[in-house]
Design brief:
mainly alpha, 70 residues, 4 helices, 434 Repressor (Amino-terminal Domain), 60% helix
Amino acid sequence: MRKKDIRIIVGEKIRSLREGLGWSQEELGFESGLHRNYIGGVERGERNIAIVNLDKLAKAMGVSPRDLLP
């Protein structure tokens, strides 16, 4: 069985938390200081997210960065 790419797992967690807050990608981008297109790429697992950006997203959503990791 092939293991799921960590970028996809993290992206799914971010999307789930964002949707739980009722936010669009644009709103999360505004709150985190990151561009909405970047958020979309992260959520689709297309981007290799930097630790500093993971921290920005976590802070914006009121969670710990570890909550975004598997």
